[in-house]
Design brief:
The protein is of the alpha/beta class and 300 residues long. The chain contains 13 helices and 9 strands. The strands form 2 sheets. It has a 6-stranded parallel sheet. It has a 3-stranded parallel sheet with strand order 1-2-3. The longest helix has 15 residues.
Length: 300
C-alpha cells in the first residue's frame, strides 16, 4: 500500500477554526484507533470488503502511515487521543496491551490504552495494566462476540470499578446486531458494579434512548459521539430528534469521539455534526474538550 501525502492545509485549518471559534485550547478525541500495522491492515481490508458488520461502502478517509496519522491529529489540534485496540479471539489482548503501552510511551498525547477478553489470564493482565498507569480501556462486544456477563470477566470488572479507569465499550447493536450487543446486558452489569466507569461508544447506536437512560441513571456512565449525528450515521440510524433535548441534561457526560482514521468522511464533518445540533456553545465546548479534559486530568 502506498500512503497518501499528508492531509491538506485547508482541512487542518477547517478543523482548527471550529475549536478556535469556541475559545478552546484544542480537542480531546477519546475514540481513535492506532494498532499494530498488521492488525490495522486487516481492519482496513474488512472495511474494504464491505464485511457483514459494515454492510455498505465504507472508504477509509485517513488510510496512511502511522506517523502521518499522528501528525494529522496534531495538526488538527487534538490535545489527547486514544489507541483503541481490541481482540477478536483469546491470547491476543495481552499482546495488544504491550503494543499500546509502547505506543503511548512514544506518543505523549496518546492516552495509555489497554483492552481485555474473557479468558483466564484477563484478571492478571488487567491488573498489570492498571498498575502501569493505563488511562482508558477498550471493550468491543460486537467484534469480540462475548457477553460482558461472562464469569471470566468478573475480576476484570471489579478491578476497573475500584480503579475508576474508564472503559470505552462498543455495546450498541450498530452497524449490525451482535449476539451479545444491546442495553440489557450492560444494565445487568451495572446493577452488579454500579460504579463502573463506562463510556458507551457511538452514543449506543441504534439503541440511543436506552443508553441515554443508563447514562442519566448511573453516575459513571458516559457516552461518546463517535460517528453519531454525521450524515453517514443519520442515513442508517438517525438519532431521534425528540431525544435531543435530553442531551442537554447529559452535557457533562458526553465526550467527543471520531473513529479516526476509520471514517468515511473528513474529520471536520464530525465536528460540524456536533455544532449543528444547535445545543449551544457551552454544550459544544463541554463535548469537544472540557468533559474529557476533566475525566482524564488534562491541564488547561
Amino acid at each position: 500500500m502506498t500512503d497518501p501525502a499528508p492531509f491538506s492545509t485547508a482541512e487542518t485549518d477547517g478543523v482548527r477554526a471550529v475549536w478556535q471559534a469556541l475559545g478552546l485550547p484544542g480537542i480531546v478525541d477519546v475514540h481513535t484507533h492506532f494498532m499494530p500495522r498488521a492488525v490495522m491492515d486487516k481492519v482496513w481490508a474488512y472495511f474494504d470488503s464491505v464485511g457483514p458488520l459494515v454492510g455498505r461502502e465504507w472508504p477509509i478517509t485517513y488510510r496512511a502511515d502511522e506517523d502521518v496519522r499522528v501528525a494529522a491529529l496534531q495538526g488538527f489540534g487534538v490535545r489527547a487521543y486514544s489507541s483503541l485496540v481490541y481482540p477478536h479471539k483469546p491470547n491476543m489482548a495481552e499482546w495488544l496491551n504491550g503494543w499500546a503501552a509502547d505506543f503511548a510511551a512514544h506518543h505523549p498525547d496518546c492516552l495509555h490504552t489497554a483492552t481485555f477478553y474473557p479468558e483466564e489470564p484477563a484478571t492478571q493482565y488487567v491488573s498489570r495494566a492498571i498498575q502501569s498507569g493505563v488511562r482508558v480501556f477498550k471493550c468491543h462486544i460486537q467484534v469480540g462476540d462475548f457477553t460482558v456477563l461472562d464469569s471470566l470477566l468478573d475480576g476484570v470488572w471489579s478491578q476497573i470499578a475500584d480503579s475508576r479507569v474508564p472503559v470505552i465499550i462498543h455495546c450498541g447493536s450498530g452497524p449490525a446486531p451482535g449476539t451479545f450487543t444491546g442495553p440489557e446486558p450492560i444494565e445487568k452489569l451495572l446493577h452488579r458494579f454500579p460504579s463502573l466507569p463506562l463510556i458507551v461508544a457511538h452514543m449506543g447506536t441504534p439503541e440511543y434512548t436506552e443508553f441515554v437512560d443508563l447514562a442519566l441513571r448511573f453516575d459513571n456512565v458516559r457516552l461518546d459521539t463517535t460517528m453519531s449525528f454525521t450524515d453517514f450515521a443519520e442515513e442508517g440510524a438517525p438519532f431521534p430528534r425528540e431525544l435531543r433535548p435530553r442531551l442537554l441534561d447529559l452535557r457533562d457526560k458526553i465526550l467527543f469521539g471520531s473513529d479516526f482514521p476509520n471514517i468515511p468522511y473528513g474529520y471536520v464533518h464530525a465536528l460540524e455534526a456536533i455544532t449543528r445540533l444547535d445545543l449551544g456553545d457551552d454544550w459544544v465546548r463541554a463535548v469537544l474538550h472540557d468533559n474529557a479534559a476533566r475525566l482524564f486530568g488534562l491541564d488547561a
